[in-house]
Design brief:
alpha/beta, four-stranded antiparallel sheet, 2 domains, binds pyridoxal-5'-phosphate, Aspartate Aminotransferase, domain 1, single chain, one-carbon metabolism, seven-stranded mixed sheet, amino-acid biosynthesis, 17 helices, 469 residues, Aspartate Aminotransferase, domain 2, pyridoxal phosphate, SHMT-like_dom, globular
């Protein structure tokens, strides 16, 4: 009965692709090249994932045509009755994926979500406590380079000598500075965050607790990392890292949804609604909200649970293998999807390692490590993540191969100065070929695959495509 080719959406999306192909080869070719790059490289970037094609299709929907300032049932424009259903569905799915009582699906990113929360709870100059960037915190958690660090008084906490969050320091700083908000959650931290302990500290000084789970949202949703929903007053996340969704953000609240908001302004959930719109954002991106709804539905499936345990399993395998190969890991290992390698013992910079690995088709990112003295664009470490590897169905044995390849590359790099390095050609060619073979063995589910290794210009310009399904 149901036939997708007879739907309006099908014709618009497929027709749009055909028109783009005919009319704008310049842009089409760039987009095609990016699709080809993704299938031919091994992305081990901790802050990314590979979305299901149905998430892409949802985002390509005609909901983009609707301007809908406000919330379902209370919009500032007409024509919103259908998109209201999209937003209600996304809110319901966010609440059930995280067991939240309140969810706002409108933030355009986690940065927006964090600034929405901070700039509504705080007044300019007010004090808040967040994790130092150097120790694994995010820019929005108080870095002097960012808005939050410049408009508020940001106090930073960090790690102990063994690479764990220094909760005693958090408590000490909280008592000393009496922040209005404490931010927990991180961007480069490989261990479990003790949200209950953060809440006790927040209660001790009368602060609101905001948990930013952008990196671990998939593990939280599947119970593989403790949930902050009922510990933090407010939980924020992006939807494009471990939720395998579109670029966007969420704001949620659990037990404290009806707690009093600041300055006697009603409940926290009503306050957060106003904090997103009209305080900090205009009209929501309803096509993106449709894609969030799709991703949040997938998050509750048994398949996603298996994916999430694969993510953790691969990260542990990688951490164990790199340790056995003599490398130094921040915090000595991992409980989540992140492995942070301190390159100082190799006399190597994060920049050189990132570039050398990329030459071989292994994509990671340079990252600050504790006590790092290098510039922000050089860094003394690399951050490796397993979201995308697990999505490609990588097994432990493949990850051991990967660890060996990473080890070989970073031990073969000769560094001339902080930025200039040399990777011997024979190492590069050999590792490239092995990465290409691994990628050919591990197609991205739902994406077209290539029958032979994609390296070399001939292969790049005329890929022979077969469907992976
Ligand atoms: C990536 C990240 C963000 C920012 O996410 P965007 O959606 O890219 O703005 C915020 N907080 C943490 C902890 C992150 O890791």
């Amino acid at each position: 009965m149901r036939d997708v080719t007879e739907t309006l959406l099908h014709d618009v999306v497929v027709g749009g692709l055909e028109r783009l192909y005919e009319d704008d080869p310049e842009l089409y070719d760039i987009l095609e090249r990016e699709a080809d790059r993704q299938r031919g490289v091994l992305s081990l970037v901790a802050s990314s994932s590979l979305v299901d094609p149905s998430v892409l299709a949802s985002q390509a929907s005609v909901a983009v045509n609707v301007t809908a300032e406000g919330y379902p049932g209370r919009r500032y424009h007409g024509g919103c009755e259908v998109v209201d259903d999209i937003e209600r569905l996304a809110v319901d799915r966010a609440r059930s994926a995280f067991g939240a009582r309140y969810a706002n699906v409108q933030p355009h990113s986690a940065t927006n979500a964090n600034y929405t929360v901070l700039s509504s709870l705080l007044r300019p100059g007010d004090t808040f406590l967040g994790m130092e960037l150097e120790h694994g915190g995010h820019l929005t958690h108080g870095s002097p380079a960012a808005y939050a660090g410049q408009y508020f008084t940001a106090i930073g906490y960090g790690l102990t000598g063994d690479g764990r969050i220094d909760y005693d320091q958090v408590h000490r700083l909280a008592v000393q500075h009496r922040p209005r908000v404490i931010v927990c959650g991180a961007t480069a931290y490989s261990r479990v965050v003790d949200f209950a302990r953060f809440r006790r500290i927040a209660d001790d000084v009368g602060a609101y607790l905001m948990a930013d789970i952008s990196h671990t949202a998939g593990l939280v949703a599947t119970g593989l990392h403790p949930s902050p929903i009922d510990h933090a007053h407010i939980t924020t996340t992006c939807t494009h890292k471990q939720l395998f969704g579109p670029r966007g953000g969420l704001i949620m609240s659990g037990r404290d949804a009806d707690a009093p908001a600041p300055r006697g302004s009603g409940t926290l959930s009503a306050f957060l609604q106003r904090a997103v719109f009209p305080f900090s954002q205009g009209a929501p991106a309803l096509n993106t909200i449709a894609a969030k709804a799709r991703a949040l539905e997938l998050v509750t499936t048994a398949e996603f649970r298996r994916l999430a345990s694969g993510i953790v399993d691969l990260a542990r395998t990688l951490a164990g293998a790199l340790t056995d190969l003599g490398h130094t890991l921040v915090a000595g290992g991992t409980d989540n999807h992140i492995v942070l390698v301190d390159l100082a013992p190799l006399g190597l910079t994060g920049l050189a390692a990132e570039r050398a690995l990329e030459e071989c088709g292994i994509i990671v990112n340079k990252n600050r490590v504790p006590r790092d003295t290098t510039p922000a664009l050089v860094t003394g470490g690399i951050r490796i993540g397993t979201n995308s590897a697990a999505r490609r169905g990588m097994r432990r044995s493949d990850m051991l191969v990967c660890a060996g390849l990473i080890d070989r590359v970073i031990r073969s790099v000769e560094v001339h100065d902080q930025r200039d390095y040399h990777l011997p050609t024979e190492v590069r060619d050999d590792v490239r070929a092995r990465v290409a073979a691994l990628c050919a063995d591990l197609p991205i589910p739902g994406y077209p695959t290539v029958e032979r290794p994609p390296w070399g210009s001939a292969a790049l310009s005329t890929p022979r495509v077969r469907s992976s399904r």
